[in-house]
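Next up, a chain.

===
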Amino acid sequence: HSSAGTLNGAVPGEPVKKDENSRRGNWGNQIEFVLTSVGYAVGLGNVWRFPYLCYRNGGGAFMLPYFIMLVFCGIPLFFLELSFGQFASLGCLGVWKISPMFKGVGYGMMVVSTYIGIYYNVVICIAFYYFFMSMTNLLPWTYCNNPWNTPDCSGVVGKDGMLNTSLANATSLATEVVNRTKRTSPSEEYWKYYVLNISDDIGNFGEVHLPILGCLAISWIVVFLCLFRGVKSSGKVVYFTATFPYVVLTILFIRGITLDGAINGIKYYLTPQWEKVLDAKVWGDAASQIFYSLGCAWGGLITMASYNKFHNNCFRDSIIISITNCATSVYAGFVIFSILGFMAHHLNVPVSEVADHGPGLAFVAYPEALTLLPISPLWSLLFFFMLILLGLGTQFCLLETLVTAIVDEIGTDWIIRHKTIITLGVAIAGFLLGIPLTTQAGIYWLLLMDNYAASFSLVIISCIMCVCVMYVYGHRKYFKDVEMMLGFPPPLFFKICWRFISPIIIAFILVSHSDSQSQAHSLYNDYIYPGWSLAIGFAMALSSVICIPIYAIYKVARSPGATFRERLKNACRSDANWGPALKEHRTGRYAPMTSEDAAEGCPHQPHHPGKQRLDQHTQQPQPQRI
C-alpha cells in the first residue's frame, strides 16, 4: 500500500485528488471535517443543558466563567486531541503507540463512547416519535380530554382554542397557590403516561413500548446508512445535518422574539447576577459544561482528526469549531427562553416555573409552549427535526469512533475492506443494548446513564491524556511533532495551557463535582433512586476509568526488563511505529534510514529491512534523551 503514497508524494507540482492515505481513506475535503466536528460538538446539550445552566448560575454573569473556561481549558484540549489524532492518523486506540502503557485511556474512551452511543440514540428515537406524532392538525398534548389524562390535568389552551383565561386569573391569586403546585400540564401527562408509560420504580421494567422501539430501529438504521462507507458517506451527509439545525434555530428565534413576553424570558436568561461569579460551583459548572459540550475525552475528536490530511491546519479548525459550538449554545438560549417567556406571560407566572432542562425541556416544557402558537404542528415538526439532526451529528461520530478503533486495532487488509460489516455489527449491538431503555423504566436508566456514564470519568481520562503527552512522552517532542505537521510550533499560550493550566482546571472540576455528585442525581422529579441503582451508575462511571490502571499493570508486566524500573521505562517508551502514518511524512526523528542508506538509494529495497532498521534506529537515540 505504500506505492500509492510514494506516487502521491512523487508529483509535488500537480494537486492530487486521490486520498493521501489510500488504505484508511481521508475526508473528501476540509469542510467535511469541520462540519462533522461541529455536528459532533453541537449536540442536544447545547439546547437543553446550557440555557438552563446559564439561568441557574447567574444569567449573563455565567458567560464570564464560561468563556474563561473555553479559552483556558476547552480550546487547548480540543487542539490537543485534534493534533494527536491527525499526527498519527489512528483512532483512539492506535494513537497510544505514543506511550503504550497508557493505552487503557483509549479503551476508557471507547467505553464512554459506547455508553453515550447507547442512550443518545434512545433520546433521538423519542424525538423521532414526537416528530411523527406532530404530523397532525392538532398536537396530541394540547388538551386534557385524552384517555391517558388524570383529573389534575389543566391545559394552557381552552376548548375553543383560546387561552384558558380562568386559569390565568386563578394563578395570579395568592390563595390559589396550592392548586397551582398540583397542576400538571397535558404535555407532561402525555410524556409520562402515554409516551413513556412510566413505571413506579427503576427495577420495575414493565413492557417494551413498541412505537418507541420502532423509532429506535429507525434511528439506528439512519445512522448505519449514513456511515456505511465510513467518512466517505458521512462526510456528505453532514453538509445537511450540521447546517440545517441553524436554519431551524433561526426560524424558531424569529418566531420566538416576536411573541408577547419573550423579552421577559430573555431578560431572565441574561440578567447578570454578579455575586454568583464568586461561587466556586458556578465555575465548576462552567468548566464541566465546556468539557462535555466540546466532546473532549470521548475519543471522537481523535478519530475524526485521524482522517485529515497530514498537513491540515487543525489549529485553525479547533478554534473555529470550539467557538461555533459555544456561540450555538448561547443562540439556542434565546430560542428556548423567548418561547418560555411567552408561556410564562400567558400563564401569568414567573419564568422560573416553566423553565426546565434535559428531556423535561425538550419533551415537556417546550412542546407545551408550542401549543399556544398558531399552526403549532409546524413549529413542533421543526423543533423535533432540529433535535433529531443535532443528535444524529453526535451519534455518527460516536459510532465511527468505535468502528475506527476496532478496525485500526485489528488492522488486517480484510477488515479494512469489510469495515461496513463491523459498522453493521456495532449498530446492531447498540440497538439491542438500547432495548431496555424503551421499557417503562427506561427513562430512569437513561437519566442514570446520562449522569454517571460520562461524568467524572471523562475528566479523569482527559487529565491522564494531558499528563501522558506532556510529561511522559515529553512536551518538547510533542511541540516538535506539531511543528513538523503544521509548519509552526503551537503558540506559547497553548504550550502553557497544555502543560499547566488545563490539567489544573481539570483537577478543579473533579474536586468541585465529587461532592455534588452524591446528592444531585438521586432525584427524577420526586423519585428517589434506590441505592443499588446508584451503585450501578457508579460502576458505569468507574468501568471506563478502571481500564487505565488495569491495562497499565498488564503492559508493565509484559514489558522486557530485569527490574521494575526498566519495565516501567520500556512500557512508557514510544512504539517503534509511532509517528506519521505515511512514509513520505516520516522525516527528521521519524526518518526510517540513516544518511548512508539514503545515498545507496533505499527505495529499491523491499519494505521489511527498512522496518528492522527503523527499530534499531529508534532504540539508539534513547540514552541522550534520558
User: Anything to note?
Assistant: The radius of gyration is 26 Å. The chain has a mean pLDDT of 87. The longest helix spans residues 376-410. Strands lie at 523-524, 527-528.
